[in-house]
Amino acid sequence: MTPETALGLSLPLGLAITAFSSAIALGKAVAAAMDATGRQPEASGKILVNMMAGCALIEALTLYSLVFGFVLMGKI
């Protein structure tokens, strides 16, 4: 197997795994935040800020993976 073939097969698979993992992580983060808001509605502002920061970091990881995939795609 040539390096070009390996990249051609692994790049889409890696991006798909990253996107799926990001979706699962975002779902869990939002679900946990909604559960926490339901338990303590008076702390909803702090919970929302922390959830948004966490979601931004999760999305950043997904975007870094996408950029990394595009950079490696230039090697094919």
Characterization of this structure:
By secondary structure, this protein is an all-alpha fold. It has one domain: F1FO ATP Synthase, CATH 1.20.20.10. The chain has two helices and no strands. Helix 1 runs antiparallel to helix 2. The longest helix has 37 residues. It is elongated, with a radius of gyration of 17 Å. The two termini are 13 Å apart.
The CATH class label is: Mainly Alpha
Q: How much helicity do the residues have?
A: over 70%
How many strand elements?
A: 0
What is the annotated CATH architecture?
Up-down Bundle
Largest sheet: none
- Please, what is the average pLDDT? 93
List low-pLDDT spans.
Answer: none
> From the helix content, strand content and strand pairing, which structural class follows?
mainly alpha
Q: Termini, distance in Å? A: 13 Å
The assembly state of the depicted protein chains is single chain
Count of alpha/pi helices: 2
Shape: elongated
CATH homolog superfamily: F1F0 ATP synthase subunit C
Percent in strands: under 5%
